[in-house]
Write the structure tokens for this entry.
Amino acid sequence: MDNNQNKIPITKEGLEGIKKEYGELVNTKRLEAVQRVAETRTIGDLTEDNEHIQAKQNLAFIDGKISELGEVINNAQIINQKDGGSDKVNLGCKVTVEFNGKNQSFHLVGEWEADPASMRISHKSPLGQSLLGRQVGDKIEVEAPAGKIIYTIKGIN
């Protein structure tokens, strides 16, 4: 079995953000949630105590998130953004494309960092998959809800 199969591609900055969130969950939010469960346990009949049920659900959610983020941290594979170079699109690259006469730039990142509103697209998205390995001047066709969109790669950083 290939060890890279479980690796999660992420930029150094993205991993730092996940570690920060993990630390806040473990060191602050989980402790607050445990305290809240203990406080609500003392309030009357537990079978009917909505606050206690909500406190336990919140703790379970936080524990799930801690587990999920721990998995990302343990399996993180830092994207070497210099690997993108300027000849082929790779993870970590910033790609400028033209479509409908307008230029738009995207940062190609791993799934955990994707944020389309910030122009950070996942390498597993339809556009991200179409861009990988391509070069300046290449035209790619992407299926979108509104129909096919043709992009021309103008620059790779």
